[in-house]
Amino acid sequence: MNRLHSRRLWIRAAAKIREQYQSQATGFPTVNSPPVDQWTRVMRLSRLLTKAQQRHCLVAFQRCLEQYKHSVARMIHDLTACHSELTDIKRPTVVPSLRELVAELCSLPDEFEETRIDWSEQEIIVRTPPVILREVNLGEFEIRLRWSELGDPQPYQVISLSQTGTDDVHHPHVQGDTLCEGEGKIPITQALAEGRLGDFFLLVQQILQTYNPGSAYVPLDRWWNSSCADCDDSMSQEESRPCSTCEHQICEYCRRNCTACGDHLCSSCADTCETCDDTFCRGCLSNCESCDECFCRPCLSDQTCSSCLEESLENEDALSEESTPDTPPATAPPSETPEAAQTSPATVQPICLGQTDLHA
């Protein structure tokens, strides 16, 4: 891209930025009404106090006096809040000229290796050199100033291009894409309010190249470490493994493995079979169609657990016993009739050896 074409783009962007400054300068601030209702109540109570005093009504005077004190205190509180709102209204800022804004934007390529304009997002973007803090290389960052949000508390984002660190902290003083400005907040706000865009980008870059252990989201001595999602202990990258379900990092002592598929699980994503008590992921467990409890597939038969199967069989046996008709009791074998007993031959006793029958 030649310098002439580049300058034309900067002029176009400067015109858009100046429109934003003008819209802020021409807008009227919100001014709230004073506490008129409270003032009316105070004046009414003052008149009632005067009447009670003139008529020597001591009880009425004491009652009105307490209400009068409360209303005056409330009015003072409301007036103080109204005065605070008035003092917070800023004086209209001087709109920077188009020439000044163009000069600020055209100076950016001299300070940063890469600068560009994102027209769809209405952003001026610069890329910083690699940020190295205490021998920890955090990589390069993009500073994105959105001119449509000029006037907001923080109309810019800081994006890590290397994605070092863990979770959403890729710089000790950046969480997500929001910079903790610290003592740089006032000069950054002033630079943006006055249209000194070059100073703004340099101030943000200077904060990125500064480290304060007391205000760091993650200290540099723990930069390559992460915290276990279960026990919250610090662990190195070699010791940590992501949970296969929620992707939270867990240490080797808290890590569980699914008995079926072998996936790594944290305590929140691990479940157990109600029968064998082994650990499984939720995808390897099924619900019993009868009791709706979780079981592993080997512990289910036709989608039913063993307890429910036994209970079902017992119920079937009970039903079958109830449905069987009554049968007469078995008859005993027929005994000998009296006639047979009478006609049966007498029992023959054996003759003992050496004995003879004695005749009568």
Can you lay out the helices and strands and say which pair or pack?
Blueprint: H1 3-26, H2 36-54, H3 58-88, H4 98-106, H5 108-111, E1 114-118, E2 123-127, E3 131-133, E4 136-139, E5 141-146, E6 156-160, E7 169-171, E8 174-175, E9 178-179, H6 185-193, H7 197-208, E10 226-227, E11 234-235, E12 241-242, E13 249-250, E14 256-257, E15 264-265, E16 271-272, E17 279-280, E18 285-287, E19 294-296, E20 300-301, E21 304-305, H8 306-323, H9 338-343
Antiparallel strand pairs: 1-2, 2-5, 3-4, 5-6, 7-8, 8-9, 10-11, 12-13, 14-15, 16-17, 18-19, 20-21
Helix pairs in contact: 1-4, 2-3, 6-7
Key features of this structure:
single chain, 360 residues, alpha+beta, four-stranded antiparallel β-sheet, three-stranded antiparallel β-sheet, flat
Structural description of this entry:
α2 packs antiparallel against α3 (58-88) and α6 (185-193) packs antiparallel against α7 (197-208). The strands form nine sheets. Strands 1-2-5-6 form a four-stranded antiparallel beta sheet, with helices on one face. The protein has 360 residues and is of the alpha+beta class. 37% of the residues lie in helices and 17% in strands. It is built from nine helices and 21 strands. The N and C termini lie far apart (159 Å).
